């Protein structure tokens, strides 16, 4: 039977189903999402979700798209429009990612598990936009001498991604009390990212040319 205590607004069933799926992920994990349970939580019949999502995979893809929309918004909001330092802007992308993961752990879970849902369509487009922005900033740092001319940009962008993803994974999985029992995890993540960017500045910059 539908859960009549949680009716959806007429014409907004798709969003209600996505919201219900996110609630299940937050409570029990993405592996426990089922179309039947999502329908129950949204207060509709078991067959109603199929008007919008023909399968569980399609529903999870919609959750992933919402996740990527929010991640993209967080990254854009973190950027400083008048800051011309590309490594500063790169650090801000990382901060935006970490804040998004902290505020949206269920979204982080869904886009982390490629075996359950791949990034396609709009989700892939948004993900690629972030990667392209990171590559552009690193190329800019290279062209201005902040990074050496032989800096491996592809490896650097992968390293940046690995750092913020790893920190976010530790946060969502609750590892910080074991590794840094003192202080706020958000501050430790921020310090780790600042250390990484500082190392880029110190050890990968173009050597000064003799006069």
UniProtKB/TrEMBL annotation:
Record Gene3D superfamilies: Tetracycline Repressor, domain 2
Coiled coil: none
Keyword Methyltransferase part of the UniProt annotation: no
InterPro entries given in the database record: Homeodomain-like_sf, HTH-type_TetR-like_transc_reg, HTH_TetR, MT1864/Rv1816-like_C, Tet_transcr_reg_TetR-rel_C_sf
Keyword RNA-binding: no
Residue span(s) of domain HTH tetR-type: 11-71
Keywords, sorted A to Z: DNA-binding, Transcription, Transcription regulation
Residue ranges: DNA binding: 34-53
Pfam family for this entry, one: TetR_N
Domain of life assignment: Bacteria
GO MF term list: DNA-binding transcription factor activity; transcription cis-regulatory region binding
Name recorded for this polypeptide: TetR/AcrR family transcriptional regulator
Lineage of the species this protein comes from: Bacteria, Pseudomonadati, Pseudomonadota, Alphaproteobacteria, Rhodobacterales
């Amino acid at each position: 039977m539908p859960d009549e205590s949680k009716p959806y607004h007429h014409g907004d069933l798709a969003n209600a189903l996505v919201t219900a799926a996110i609630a299940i992920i937050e409570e029990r994990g993405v592996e426990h999402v089922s179309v039947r349970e999502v329908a129950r939580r949204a207060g509709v019949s078991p067959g109603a979700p199929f008007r919008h999502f023909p399968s569980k995979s399609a529903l999870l893809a919609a959750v992933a798209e919402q996740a990527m929309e929010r991640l993209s918004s967080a990254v854009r909001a973190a950027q400083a429009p008048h800051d011309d330092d590309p490594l500063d802007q790169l650090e801000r992308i990382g901060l935006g990612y970490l804040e998004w993961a902290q505020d949206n752990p269920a979204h982080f879970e869904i886009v982390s598990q490629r075996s359950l849902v791949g990034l396609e369509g709009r989700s892939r487009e948004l993900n690629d936009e972030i990667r392209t922005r990171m590559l552009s900033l690193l190329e800019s740092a290279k062209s201005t001498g902040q990074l050496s001319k032989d800096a491996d940009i592809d490896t650097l962008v992968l390293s940046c991604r690995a750092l913020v993803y790893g920190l976010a994974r530790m946060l969502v999985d609750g590892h910080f009390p074991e590794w840094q029992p003192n202080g706020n995890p958000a501050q430790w993540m921020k310090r780790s990212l600042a250390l990484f960017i500082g190392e880029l500045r110190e050890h990968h910059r173009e050597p000064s040319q003799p006069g």
